[in-house]
Amino acid sequence: KQEVTQIPAALSVPEGENLVLNCSFTDSAIYNLQWFRQDPGKGLTSLLLIQSSQREQTSGRLNASLDKSSGRSTLYIAASQPGDSATYLCAVHNAGNMLTFGGGTRLMVKP
Amino acid sequence: SAVISQKPSRDICQRGTSLTIQCQVDSQVTMMFWYRQQPGQSLTLIATANQGSEATYESGFVIDKFPISRPNLTFSTLTVSNMSPEDSSIYLCSGQGGNRGNEQFFGPGTRLTVL
Q1: Per-residue pLDDT at B1
Q2: Alpha-carbon distance B109 to B115, whole Å?
Q3: Distance in Å, alpha carbon of A101 to nearest chain B alpha carbon
């Protein structure tokens, strides 16, 4: 059974700092991996999708990497802003089209 | 790209009653899913909504408690039956396929409080 772990569970940084969020998964037989953002009490916004054959994806200040063989992904946020404060969720896509989610990293960017 | 809406956005219900949540996608998708997010927790898949047939439920979730319909490629409902306070959660609908390919995308969620 796939298990997804995110470290750290919470992170507080000053504005402008570059930061890395970590995601690890136990079963490397994945189709793809997605990073989501969730604001308090809201739904999920898809940030980046990395196919299993890809090593990284970039969108603006966000860069996600995938090392399938070691079961790891990182989300890099450059020049963080207070508006980046949210919970970031990593989810892996296995057979059967189901997503398995990590517990999330709660990010606070202080002005 | 496709967008998902959910109704209601939130509700407060009495114990023992049932609530039906609607999920509408603005374009056809292959797959639709229902998730639950309990307070302070991550998301747990309840079931895959199958068009024209019974939903596929994950371990710990049963049809009698969470009946699901999916009459076409853009619409699904989830009913939370005989509610108890333990059912207080955010319920999220997601879609996959269509013009967004392999990406799974989510509705805004329905925040349910059971008294």
Answers
A1: 64
A2: 19
A3: 6
